[in-house]
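Internal tracking record. Fields below are filled automatically when a chain is submitted to the structure queue. Please do not edit lines marked as system-generated. If the sequence contains nonstandard residues, flag them in the REMARKS field before resubmitting.
Queue: standard
Priority: normal
Entity type: single polypeptide chain
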Amino acid sequence: MLKERTFRAYSGWVVLAVMLLGSVVAIFFAANGPNVESRVLSLAVAAVVFFVCLFGFIAVPPNTARALLLFGDYKGTVKTSGFYWVNPFFSKRKLSLRTRNFETGSTRTAEKKSDVGTVIEKGSRTNGRPSKVNDRDGNPIDISAVVVWKVVDTAEALFEVDDYEHFVEVQSEAALRVLASRHPYDSEDHEVSLRGNPTEVCEQLQHDIQERLAKAGVEVIEARISHLAYSPEIAAAMLQRQQAQAVVAARTKIVEGAVGMVKMALDQLQSDGIVELDDERRATMVSNLLVVLCGSAHTQPVINTGSLYN
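SYSTEM-GENERATED OUTPUT FOLLOWS
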């Protein structure tokens, strides 16, 4: 596997000064040559050398790299921003080291160029569309993720994969689908689920994508799920199930609180000696209190004006 090597390029300003000084010297000797032929030859050689050396200048902006090749042989990469001079016969491949992001499900349109290499239409990217995947329980869900990444090894990005940008997109989509099929959408037994454990799921997604992109010289900075929902064909049924679960959970909480309040009321009545209740009246009071505390509507009180047993 080809690894990145740092290339130490010459300062462009120093080489430019040397070239200009050499041109002045060449012109001086040509002007004082012994004959016309020698003068013309000196000027021609100086002009050719000066012209060829111009192709060795490169300007490297911040967060940009230039990979250098000599007749197909990789020589190294210049990653420090500045003005440099290298061998004029080097082929210079430009790569961006900036942090980039994309949303899974989006498609990229390549730029269009004319016959002479002029860019006619710039490349574009469509908005991401959720992918339909079956979760671990077989329920169809719509899911998409945002992946933040950058190139860290220019040699691997250029020479180990065909198109590293397309490679990142395809492998991220594949990792997301595998992750979605590994976990349920929702869980009731405290296991990891897509909806209930977003932090753990995103960490797993980032690890899975990084494992797939290691050979492409790419570092995954962050991977986050941007859209998660049941597919439309089962969304209504799943919504009813969630509503039923919420109602059951709420009623369970109400009953637990009501039982505690009834127990506290009976214990306090007994400890303060306010009233003595037999088992039948005690059960009746418990029933009445539970109806009042657990009922969803307001209760209508009934006043007994007779004795306790009539």
